[in-house]
Amino acid sequence: MIPQGFDFQHLKSYVSIEMVLAAKGLLPFLRKKGGRIIGPCPLHHGDNPHAFVVTLTKDLWHCFTRCDAGGDVVELVRRLDALTYPQAAAYLATLAGVSPKPPAPPPKKPAPLPRFNPVYLYPYIPFLINKGIHHETAARFGIGSLRGPRSYQNSVLVPLHDIKGNPLGYATRFIKGYSSYQTMGKWQFPNGIAKKELLFNFHRCRPHLGDCLVVVECPWGVLRLTQLDIPAVALLGIHLSDFQRALLALVPRVILLMDGDQAGRNATDRIYDVLSPFTDVRRVKLPPDTDPDDHTGIRLRAMLEPFLP
Ligand SMILES: [Zn+2]
Question: What confidence score (pLDDT) does residue 258 get?
Fold first, then answer.
């Protein structure tokens, strides 16, 4: 019996069987054919190449041989690692980047301005212009500076979304002086939002999950690559979380384009080691101490071109 207090329907709306198979490193052993994923059963570890079938439209699996059983993504996760329902909920929640518990009912009296309400963000700021980001691109991503409250005038605000594209609030980064192009300190995230549960721009990249994604550190790199029609996501730092790894495992090819400083170089090698059992990973080495946004569009394209499908 499924215990109360877990909203599996909510979790299933985020995590598919394919995502779980990718996160577990099982996709390379299976093949995708006509709306189905077929291969040897990962549950009984048989070698019949037709035993295990996932019907993608229904998001259901079945093993037609030894197990003679099937079910949804929850059932798969439970059987793969002999998990209890609460453990399965926790695992799916990690992959989804959401809470395993259903969202709390809205309070009777609305809390005063929990995160930012929709605000007009001013995209014409020197910081973005210096990075070669067109104001149309910034406006499309909803990125800019707040003109109102003084405390946010010297910062740039970046809207965050979950993997389905639901808004989560804004990440903010302080700018060293209004007309400068340098940031100060670390990213600030809204209360309750953990960086490890974010992969910036992933929701917009869903149509490209079948081919290739570029991974950068900062949203600025994502915006620059978007201007070149190259799909990209940002880690918002140099660490790859389990959640981010699971999402990137879905993509057949991942190109790492981390910053050219020592931290970025080390991160590239670390992430390469973690990701390469799951997918085809390529590394682009930027010139020392440069970020993707230090380079012209032509140069960026030339660096990435050999690795793009
Ligand atoms: Zn089986």
Answer: 97
Residue 66 Cα to ligand 1 midpoint, Å, equals 5
pTM over 0.70: yes
CATH class given for the domain over 202-307:
alpha beta
From 108-117, 141-150, 298-307, the region with the lowest mean pLDDT: 108-117
Superfamily name with CATH number, domain 8-96 = Zinc finger, CHC2-typedomain (3.90.580.10)
Residue 151 makes CB contacts below 8 A (sequence gap 6+) with none
pLDDT at 257 over 90: yes
Q: Where are the domains of the chain?
A: 8-96, 121-195, 202-307
Identify the pLDDT of residue 193.
86
Q: What average pLDDT does range 166-195 have in this prediction?
A: 80
Cα(21) to centroid(ligand 1), Å? 14
CA of 68 relative to ligand 1 center, distance in Å: 7
